[in-house]
Design goal:
The protein is mostly helical. Helix content is about 65%, strand content about 0%. It is built from 48 helices and no strands.
């Protein structure tokens, strides 16, 4: 039955086509006018049926060019059929492209004339036409090029009997009209995506034409080039740039402050990706980006306080940044590997010299010529030459000398030179740690203890961190600690050296884990003694280690032996317990001591036991303090005093004669005190604010958290940049109140501004602060805060211009940053002073609204790097961004179902424009989530010229969906034609 019906339809169409051909012949014989043709054709075509169904355009054009010259009367019938919508432009263009009578110049000329008259009005008015238009326009472009190639070869004038140059001129005119039409160029771009084979023919024909003489530098060449190599950037789109060009960026310094605070050991290429993202968002040139990077680092270094932070920022600025610049320069479009310097870097340094106040402060603080020191490090990366260093340093020398004279009474040495001098020792330590430990024990012990003097250890760690060698350093120290375990029967000097080496490696490892977090520096499932001790016994923030479970794991026999020995060292000799076994059984010892004290044992006896413990090895004091701090977190307030006093006992001085019995005991004891103080203050923060900042940065305040935020924000506003201590406080606030609370506060600060320049500055800083946890903050912004703004549920805030466009820009920036930081690259909490509200109260009472940050290691030497730079956009949007973005689009869709233009619709339009403008190819996965018909509904509401074919094509992922783009292009075209007809 289906076959019979199809056969009957075909017969009906054929008969109708025959009838149309007979009518066409009759019209030509009787010389009907085009109006008569229009009246009579309607007697044949059913009402509402297009002539395309019966190949009307084919019928007319076949009759029009049947002879050696074109029949203008018949062509007038075709023009009338087009104007009365009896045939589609797509069908006419397709039929013209099939004409192969290139030996009939008069017919070709007539067709070109006809094409020239209709090309500016080409459009579509139905679904059937939309399926044809892309191929039709692409085919007619190829036909025009074929005609041009044929005509260009023909001799003109009397020799051929026809002026072929008139044809080339007509082709040029039609091609110019196509190039000038954004609609046709948009359709042509879709044709390039749809039919690669057909566009390949266009490319070959273009090469053939440009190889002809007389085509070079002609008007047609440019038009042919544009259609052959058409790209999306040729299609215009409204550029929503912020008003006014910012003199400086307020985004980069806060972003670096947050990143270096949280992730000092991040791989260089992660920073490179973030900087490239900022460059795309801001539209900076390479020199401007480099200059802002250096300037942001110098501002942070100039205002950072504390030896740990100062050395970290100094190492980042003078060691890490040159590596970042090297990779950025290698990715620059102007990169020339033959040059032994980078012109972009030189230009950036020229720009930096104009910012004299920053350099003046830095030269004074660092007691050196900052530019010279920095360029010396750039020289190692082949970004500058020695001659250029001399020229730049000479320009600052006179200023530097006068500034240093002002500091003549300040004998503080240059922190920059100290940090740079730490590079060779680090290399030496790593080299020595990689050798046979049994052969270099004494030399290794001397070297490690020397590192503990002064602030050398902090400098070494800072350099290791920014160079990506921290995990290597840790792994070799663990191996050293393993190889230094007690050997039964070993006595004398060798035994003392081994004990000291075990002790110092344990202390250094504990300090590193305490500073950066075990997740950052240790591998999961490590089976060494130290890794097991950290996993099971070491007190850590965000990781609950039940103290009673540690006690239960102890060997009761060994605990009893240790208690007897510690109570009276001379009477009871400790059995053959190795040092690491003692460390593992200390929780059991302390628990019994604590119970005895609570049950009446004299404080003097308790003190003697603790004193005897801490003079053996410093590792014992650390293990004891760690268990006590874990125990303090589970007891009630009335029972805190005794265990706190026991922790304090491990911080008391040791008699000189006791210290003299062990080698390098003073250096080890100094590090031990640092570790125990840090543990102590993590649980019970110091009342003194300065002391608290030196050890940790817990949020301890009797004032409301909103007031804490207000104070921090005020300091940020006054400066225009984000101090590191302010970043720490903001992270504490986010940890205690959640990302939504923090993002809401930041957005409210945007609405508090009255000038667009202030709004953009606040937006930049807010965007940077969101990198405390960019994924969670973005989800909070899109899933919770933005719907509240759109539904007017946020008190005292209304989403109107100019605030609306700034909030839209913040949302887009946050989305793009989240896309650049997928879950597999999410960073660990790895900074020098991590604070956590858990330390203020037992875990059950903690108000913690967001999950812990987790991620893989981010050290340079241990990360796969080949996919980090210029990686392709992900095929899908990672969760939870995909879910919240889809929910947001559903809400958007409810606002564009009517024809009412409102502030909400304006925000949605602005948001989408910024998304495709800033995100480009990287937002293709997001565009796939747009609901069907969404763009079309929005197009019907936005009646301005801001909606362009270029914007429509960018709102679609053309690899996945092209038909929707064709439909919207045609709708836009018809709206524009309607406007033009109204104006006429």
């Amino acid at each position: 039955m289906v076959f019979l019906k199809t056969n009957m339809d075909t017969q009906k169409t054929t008969s109708k086509t025959s009838l149309l051909n007979r009518m066409l012949m009759k019209a030509w014989r009787e010389r009907w006018t085009d109006c008569q043709w229009g009246i009579n054709i309607k007697t044949v075509l059913p009402r509402g049926v297009s002539g395309d169904v019966y190949n009307l355009a084919d019928c007319i054009l076949q009759q029009a060019v049947v002879g050696s010259g074109a029949n203008q009367l018949v062509l007038s019938y075709l023009r009338h059929s087009l104007c009365s919508h009896l045939v589609s432009h797509a069908a006419v263009l397709k039929r013209i492209s099939k004409y192969d009578g290139l030996d009939k110049p008069h017919c070709i000329f007539a067709l070109l004339e006809f094409l020239e008259s209709i090309i500016s009005g080409v459009t579509c008015r139905g679904k059937t036409e939309e399926t044809m238009i892309v191929n039709s326009v692409t085919s007619v472009v190829l036909w025009l090029m074929q005609v041009y190639a044929t005509a260009a070869r023909m001799p003109s004038g009397e020799v051929s009997g026809f002026d072929w140059s008139s044809i080339t001129k007509r082709v040029s005119s039609v091609m110019e009209s196509i190039v000038q039409s954004q609609f046709l160029m948009g359709i042509l771009y879709l044709g390039k995506q749809e039919d690669a084979e057909l566009f390949g023919k266009i490319g070959k024909k273009y090469q053939e034409i440009v190889s002809m003489s007389g085509v070079k530098n002609s008007g047609i060449e440019e038009a042919l080039k544009k259609v052959t190599f058409i790209e999306l950037n040729q299609l215009e789109m409204i550029e929503m740039e912020p008003k006014g060009v910012e003199a400086i960026t307020y985004c980069l310094q806060p972003l670096l402050a947050v990143e270096v605070l949280l992730n000092p050991s991040s791989d260089t290429q992660i920073y490179v990706n973030q900087l490239l993202m900022i460059q795309r968002l801001k539209g900076y040139s390479a020199p401007r980006l480099y200059c802002e990077l250096i300037r942001a680092c110098l501002i942070s270094l100039n205002n950072v306080s504390g030896p740990n932070r100062e050395s970290m920022w100094c190492a980042f600025t003078f060691i890490k940044v040159p590596h970042i610049l090297k990779q950025l320069n290698a990715l620059s479009k102007d990169y020339d590997e033959k040059l032994d310097y980078s012109p972009d870097v030189i230009e950036a340094l020229e720009m930096l010299l104009e910012d004299a106040p920053v350099l003046d402060f830095m030269d004074t603080k660092c007691v050196c010529n900052t530019i010279e020191c920095f360029m010396t490090e750039l020289l190692k990366q082949h970004l500058v030459t020695e001659k250029q260093i001399g020229m730049f340093s000479a320009r600052r020398e006179s200023i530097t000398s006068s500034l240093q004279k002002l500091e003549i009474n300040n004998q503080q040495p240059s922190i920059v030179k100290f940090v740079l001098r730490a590079e060779p020792p680090l290399a030496g330590i790593l080299k020595t740690l990689s050798t046979d430990y049994n052969k270099v024990q004494e030399a290794l012990l001397s070297m490690l203890c020397q590192v503990l003097s002064g602030n050398s250890f902090e400098l070494i760690l800072s350099v290791a961190t920014v160079e990506g060698k921290l995990k290597t350093f840790v792994s070799r120290l663990i191996k050293c600690n393993e190889c230094s375990k007690q050997v039964p029967g070993e006595t004398g000097k060798a035994a003392l050296t081994r004990a000291a080496l075990f002790d110092v490696s344990f202390l250094m490892l504990t300090f590193i884990v305490q500073t950066f977090g075990s997740d950052v520096v240790l591998d999961e499932g490590g089976d060494s003694f130290f890794e097991k001790w950290v996993r099971e016994c070491m007190v850590e923030r965000n990781k609950c280690k039940p103290p009673m479970a540690m006690v239960q794991q102890c060997d009761q026999v060994k605990v009893d032996e240790l208690l007897l020995h510690l109570h009276s060292p001379d009477s009871y000799k400790v059995p053959q317990l190795k040092w690491h076994e003692v460390c593992n059984n200390i929780p059991g010892v302390l628990y019994h001591v604590l119970l005895a004290w609570e049950n009446g044992q004299s404080p003097t006896d308790v003190k003697n036991i603790l004193d005897n413990m801490k003079v053996k090895l410093c590792a014992y004091s650390v293990c004891a303090a760690s268990w006590l701090c874990s125990y303090l977190q589970i007891v009630c307030a009335d029972d805190l005093l005794k265990p706190m006093n026991m922790v304090q006992q491990f911080l008391t001085a040791i008699a000189p004669e006791e210290m003299a019995q062990q080698e390098n005991f003073k250096e080890r004891l100094g590090l031990t005190f640092q570790i125990i103080r840090k543990m102590q203050h993590d649980f019970h923060p110091a009342g003194n604010a300065k002391m608290r900042m030196m050890l940790t940065h817990n949020l301890v305040s009797s004032s409301p958290l909103a007031e804490n935020f207000g104070e921090v924000w005020k300091s940020v506003q006054e400066r225009g940049w984000l101090p590191v201590d302010a970043a720490q406080t903001l992270e504490s606030l986010m940890q205690s109140c959640g990302p939504l609370w923090l993002v809401t506060k930041l957005v409210q600060e945007i609405f508090a501004c009255r000038h667009i320049s202030d709004m953009l500055r606040v937006m930049d800083i807010a965007f940077a602060i969101m990198h405390l946890d960019i994924e969670q903050c973005t989800v909070a912004l899109l899933e919770d805060l933005l719907p509240m703004l759109l539904l007017n549920k946020l008190q005292c805030v209304e989403l109107m211009e100019p605030h609306s466009s700034v909030v839209a820009r913040l949302c887009v920036c946050a989305i793009l940053a989240t896309l650049e930081t997928p879950g597999r690259m999410k960073k660990k909490r790895s900074r020098t002073d991590q604070e956590d509200i858990e330390t203020l109260c037992p875990p059950p009472k903690v108000r913690k609204l967001n999950p812990d940050l987790t991620a893989g290691d981010s050290c340079s030497s241990d990360m796969p790097t080949e996919n980090l730079i210029n990686r392709e956009p992900p095929a899908t949007v990672p969760e939870p961004l995909a879910g919240c973005f889809q929910s947001l689009l559903k809400m958007f869709a409810t606002f564009v179902t009517t024809d009412e233009f409102s502030p909400k619709v304006h925000f949605i339009f602005h948001f989408l424009v910024l998304l495709v403008q800033c995100g480009r190819d990287r937002v293709k996965p997001l565009l796939r989530l747009l609901p069907p018909g969404f763009v079309q509904n929005l197009l019907k509401i936005i009646v301005t010229d801001d909606f362009t074919p270029g914007l429509i094509l960018r709102l679609y992922d053309l690899q996945a969906s092209r038909q929707g783009a064709v439909t919207d292009l045609c709708l836009l075209r018809n709206i524009q034609l309607r406007k033009e007809s109204i104006r006429l």
